[in-house]
Design goal:
104 residues; mainly alpha; Znf_put; Anti-sigma factor RsrA; Anit_sigma_mycothiol_RsrA
Length: 104
């Protein structure tokens, strides 16, 4: 998608990172250049608006589920491990231990 006009930041770059922008997961400098792009490019602004509306709708309809405290702790622990550069176990540390069949 492109409006056909030249922009400092290409439409494809903006759209490739649209969800990161919506989730505020990009550096402030990129946020600023994407905001500028949206001011200049109505097709990208329209796409942004549509995706933002979908995200709000999903949050409103599905955002009420509570995450179990132990699962949240395990996931946050794993994120901390990855961020600190620790070796992450190959098995899923967030999974509950599996019951082993008892021999008869």
């Amino acid at each position: 998608m492109s409006c056909g006009e030249p922009h400092e930041t290409d439409c494809s770059e903006v759209l490739d990172h649209l969800y990161e922008f919506l989730d505020s997961e990009i550096p402030p400098s990129d946020r600023d250049k994407y905001k500028q792009h949206f001011r200049e490019c109505s097709p990208c602004l329209e796409k942004y608006g549509l995706e933002e509306a979908v995200k709000k709708l999903v949050k409103r309809c599905c955002g009420h589920d509570e995450v179990p405290t132990d699962l949240r702790s395990k996931v946050l622990g794993r994120i901390d491990m990855i961020r600190s550069g620790e070796t992450v176990p190959e098995h899923d540390v967030t999974a509950s231990p599996r019951a082993t069949p008892q021999e008869s």
